[in-house]
Specification:
Largest sheet: 3 strands, antiparallel
CATH topology: D-Maltodextrin-Binding Protein, domain 2
Number of helices: 6
Distance between the termini: 20 Å
Shape: globular
Number of strands: 5
Strand content: 5-15%
Radius of gyration: 17 Å
CATH superfamily: Periplasmic binding protein-like II
CATH class: Alpha Beta
């Protein structure tokens, strides 16, 4: 999903990532050397949006976003849910915008060594089933 400052209404006018990347008035904050997946990477290559590259992690990207260094970033939905809490910022300062053309992300897997007790694995399984 796209993450933007909640007060940056220019970003909210776009419903697709292709349209957003084509808007040369808005700057994309991107992590240096990071792949956003084939779909987004191809759109970046084709549209060449104005971009600010940085080595910051997602938290650093959000702080730069709030500092108006760029207008939007891309983040996985599960990352966005914890950003405000992790960074100690007001949740209303940032907003997530779902783009209609972004395909679902890759599956994520949780791996544990054989030393992890069955009871712990059962708790993981229960939490995942409950959607927590």
């Amino acid at each position: 999903m796209v993450v933007a400052r909640a007060d940056n209404r220019d970003v909210f006018g776009h419903r697709t990532l292709a349209d957003l990347f084509a808007d040369k008035q808005l700057r994309f904050g991107a992590k240096t050397g990071y792949s956003y997946g084939p779909f987004a990477d191809d759109l970046i290559q084709a549209n060449k949006p104005p971009m600010v590259r940085t080595t910051q992690d997602v938290g650093g990207l959000v702080r730069m976003l709030l500092g108006r260094r760029f207008d939007y970033i891309l983040a996985a939905p599960e990352e966005f849910e914890s950003l405000a809490d992790r960074l100690g910022i007001a949740g209303e300062d940032i907003a997530a915008i779902e783009m209609t053309d972004i395909p679902p992300g890759n599956r994520r897997y949780l791996m544990c060594s054989k030393d992890v007790a069955d009871a712990v694995i059962d708790k993981f399984d229960q939490a995942l089933a409950a959607g927590r």
